[in-house]
Amino acid sequence: MDEFQGIESRHIAEDELRGQLDLESLPQHIAIIMDGNGRWAAQRSLPRIAGHKEGLRALQDVLDIGYELNIPYLTIYAFSQENWNRPETEIRLLMGLLEQYLTQERQRFHERHVRFLPIGRLEQLPSPVHTLVTEVAEETCHYTTRTLAVALSYGGRAEIIDAVQQLALEVQMGSLSPDQINEDRFEQHLTTWGLPDPDLLIRTSGETRISNFLPWQIAYTELYFTRTLWPDFRRCETLLALLDYQKRERRFGRVTQGVPS
Fold first, then answer.
1. What's the pLDDT score for residue 255?
2. Residue 220 has pLDDT above 80, yes or no
């Protein structure tokens, strides 16, 4: 009986939170650093992979909320350049989870008209994973309503270096002069080209840093940090983050009339 009461109270809380949302002021692009899977598992004396599996369930909750609220862009930090330094066994398990997730969600992407956009140094992924990632990206590339960008083998500094090298090559070949390089030209060489900059960045688990995630793109992004571990970050936690975002005043360097800068 207590379990059912708990489920009912969570539904009431979610309805109350959704009722407070201003549907006209939702972020168009949310970026997420999904942190805390390992700690979640350790607290329960479970192997780390159990935390990663539960983290996928949390991701689905967040994706569902985004779909229901018509938020068009979501970017998640799934596997960083630094993650290659983890034990080989854990890397292999993570790559297997990625394959499993894409295989399971492939049809849902089509049903919801979601473009799957992998970003990062994808050539570093194991061959079977790279093939699957590329296939799903290609078969969903025509969808324009919603985009799920997944950072894989991604590092923000590496992305910037790659863009600089491409620009330098254009200059060397004579197709570009240095004075033609501006922000727009630079952004065309980022893996996120075509996506709007994130309005909101969420990081879970109590850490308050961006960990080399989208350093160029989040120059004016609102940051939301929570102590909740990622596997526990579900529908209500997502709504709380959106409500917090709606309290912010986004000036982008401008001065609001009547308010000191």
1. 58
2. yes
Q: Strand pairing partners for 7? A: none
Q: Which residues of 73-86 are buried (b: 16+ CB within 10 A; e: fewer)?
A: bbbbbbbbbebeee
Query: In terms of residues, how long is the chain?
Result: 261
Domain boundaries, the chain: 27-155+197-245
Q: Where does 27-155+197-245 sit in CATH, by number?
A: 3.40.1180.10
Among all residues, which ones are annotated catalytic?
35, 83
Residue 59 to residue 160: CA distance in whole angstroms: 27
Q: Which long-range contacts (CB under 8 A, 24 or more apart) does 58-61 make?
A: 58/34, 58/230, 58/231, 58/232, 58/233, 58/234, 59/34, 61/233, 61/234, 61/235, 61/238
Q: Residue 16 and residue 19: Cα distance in Å, rounded?
A: 5
Query: What would the pLDDT profile of 117-140 be if each residue is shown by its tens digit?
Result: 999 999 999 999 999 999 999 999
CA of residue 96 relative to chain centroid, distance: 20
Beta strands in 29-174 (DSSP E): 29-33, 73-80, 114-119, 146-154
65 touches 202 (CB < 8 A): no
Yes or no: say if 56 and 93 are a contact pair by the CB < 8 Å rule.
no
> How does DSSP assign 214-252, residue by residue?
STTTTTT-EEEE-SS-GGG--HHHHHHHHHHHTT----T
Rounded to an integer, what distance in angstroms lies between the CA atom of residue 77 and that of residue 134?
A: 18
Distance CA(117)–CA(195), nearest Å, equals: 10
For the entire predicted model, the pTM comes to 0.91
